[in-house]
Amino acid sequence: MRSNTSTARYNMQIQTPDWQRTIRFDAWDERIEKRFFIRVLAPRKEKGTAWLKSDKNLWMYLPKLERDIRIPASMMLSSWMGSDFTNDDLVKMDSVVADYNHRILSQDENSITIESTAKPDAPVVWGKIIHVVSNAGIPLSDDYYDEHGAHIRHLAFKEVQMMDGRRIPTLWVMQPLNDVGKKTLLKLEKATFDKSIPASVFTRANLRRAGKNR
Amino acid sequence: MIFSLAWRNIIRNWHRSFVTIAAVATGLGALIFLWGFNDGVHNAMMRNLQQVIVGSIQIHHTDYFKKSSLSRNMQVTPELQKTLANVQDSGKIKALSWRLDTFALAAGDDVSEGLVLLGMDAKAEAKTTRIAQKVDQGRFLQTGDGAVCVLGATAARNLGVGLGDNVIFLTQDRFGALAADKFKLIGIISSGEMGIDRGLAIVPLDVLQNMLEMQGRYTRVVLQIEPENLEAVTTSLRASLNHKDYEVLRWYDMYPMMKQWVDLENAFYYIFLGVVLLIVAAGIMNTVLMSMLERVREFGVMMALGCSRRILASMVIVESVILGALGVLLGLTVGLTLVAWFHSVGIDLSAQMDTVARFYVDPIVYTEIDSNHLWQTAGSVMAAAIVAAFVPIWRVAKLQPVEAIHHV
Q1: pLDDT in tens, B353-388
Q2: Domain of residue A164, CATH code
Q3: Chain B hits for A74, Cβ within 8 Å
Q4: Quick count: other Cβ atoms within 10 Å of Cβ A49?
Q5: Greater model confidence, B44 or A9
Q6: What is the ipTM of this complex?
Q7: Residue of B nearest to A77 (CA)
């Protein structure tokens, strides 16, 4: 999981009691600069929709209207593409280490349980996150709690496989606990790590191009 | 005999009687007018809340109000249609409108903001609410409009858009897929209500239904009902609609703040008017007591002639009741005339009010009085007038004829 850059293709399945749908997308991720780029491949209605995170801003491109839109802070907790992941999950993916205090809750022969509590002034949305990580360093699950200590959602990491020389979980299952019958399965189809990505990928010009090329 | 004695005493010294009646009447008239002002402000606030956009009663899919989601939508089922038609036939529903609303991201040229995207049917809404009158630039929706929108003034300013500009709304349709469209801005609302001015975009119902894959589906139906029918209609709707499918919410179930505010203010008013009532009672007691003291000699003569203390006391009681009743009648006339007069003319307070408050409180207050407030006040003043007579009665009962005759 820990790499400086990654390029990956995901298949995201959203399940609800009323409907179910699948979104495929490509993602370019550059950890050091904290920027990423996402382009939706399917379904057809949303094809070419693209997301860019750069300089703490989140942009979205709508191919149908040929417009890019900046997602404001007030929309960060809104669902991303109808899934159980939020816009904030995209933007803040890396800030857990810096914005939370960590301590080991328990440890056995298989795994370590780590509790991350939000620092008092940290601009984060979760009050507490409990991570379970295997002794081999592979994440098993994350549980998210709000500032009142209520358990909001459970993220399970499954199907550990070799991918581009790394053993990583390839299926992430996000389960919101206040929404019965809803869950999102994020499947990693392929990935390459630590291959340098041209800086031009992470630009608004590329957002617009992404829509036109496809 | 006692009554005619008392009555003669009253008309014999009409000057003194008139002062007592005037004291009661002035006090009551003032109290009624104060209630009239208070109730006028409160009822206007509650009417404004209901009539501008919220309605008196809303029906949603169960739990929609707490956890809104497009999956909790309503279709015009025979059950719903029959229930609504029944209440409508009874004449208790003045008007109703079906709406569809969801959260959306609105984007202008450079800025974007989250807000509520509300689909309204222009024709039904005109009969149900007064939102169209709050448009102060451009116009409200009309039947047959295409992709147009009406925005709150603050939202339009934040997005940096003006009349004729395009606004993009980005949201999810019923199946969670991305739904985005361009809408031409045709009207700007400034209502003075923050929620409306900064967080609302109104678009034609049919356009929004298509955009969200919600053809034939709605998220709420808004009913406009006279306040006196509110509880009865709520009860009958709740009885005939299945709890598992529908929730029936009164305006104050959804927005309890205002009702709580009115209740709190009324509680303060009761305390305030209680103090005023004490002052009024003291005034009445003063005039009654003075008129008794003037007559101590006269009472002494009556007792010397063989009139018992009981008859004397009863006479004074009857006098007080008659004076109190006349005072209350006059007070009611004066108070209600004042309330009626200012109900039609209004009291212009626009100079004292800032624009922010104007959504709820009209700058011109039209007085009106709730009947329970009216009867409580009239009853209290009558009681005060009678209680005020107890001190003189008690003194009369203790009088010694010889001392009384010599009383100066």
Answers
A1: 665 456 677 778 888 888 888 998 899 888 888 887
A2: 2.50.20.10
A3: 113-114
A4: 24
A5: A9
A6: 0.76
A7: B114
Domain range for residue A54? 7-213
| Residues A153-188 pLDDT 10s | 999 999 899 888 888 899 999 999 988 888 999 999
The predicted structure's pLDDT at residue A121: 81
Q: Which segments of chain A does DSSP mark as H helices, in order?
A: 87-91, 96-99, 204-213
**What is the band of B332 on the pLDDT scale with cuts at 50, 70, 90?**
very high
Which residues in chain A are contacts of B178 at CB distance < 8 A? 45-46, 49, 62, 81-82
Q: Is residue A2 part of a domain?
A: no
State the smallest CA–CA distance between residue B117 and chain A in angstroms.
14
Q: Would you say residue A162 lies in a domain? A: yes
Residue A214 pLDDT grade (very low, low, confident, very high; cuts 50, 70, 90): very low
* CA gap A129, A11 in Å, rounded: 25
- Number of C-beta neighbours around residue B67 at 10 A: 9
Probe site for chain B from A21, A58, A60 (most B CB atoms < 10 A): A60
Tell how strand B217-218 and strand A151-163 pair up: unpaired
Please count the structural domains in chain A: 1
Listed in order, strand segments (DSSP E) in A81-165 are 100-107, 111-118, 128-134, 139-145, 151-163
Q: What integer pLDDT is reported at residue B339 of this predicted model? A: 92
A1 occurs within a structural domain: no
Query: Are the beta carbons of A78 and B114 separated by less than 8 Å?
Result: yes
Mean pLDDT of all residues in B255-273? 87
| A67–B168 C-beta distance less than 8 A | yes
List all residues 6 or more positions away from B113 whose beta carbon is below 8 Å from its beta carbon.
A72, A74, B105, B106, B155, B158, B159
Percent of all residues in chain B with a pLDDT value above 70, rounded to a whole number:
98
Is A24 within a domain?
yes
Chain A CB contacts of B172 under 8 Å are: 79, 82
**Chain A residues within 8 A of B103 when measuring between CB atoms:** 78
Residue of A nearest to B72 (CA): A18
Q: What is the predicted pLDDT for the residue at B190?
A: 85
Residues of chain B found within 8 Å of residue A48, distances taken between Cβ atoms? none
Contact B203, B168 (CB under 8 A): no
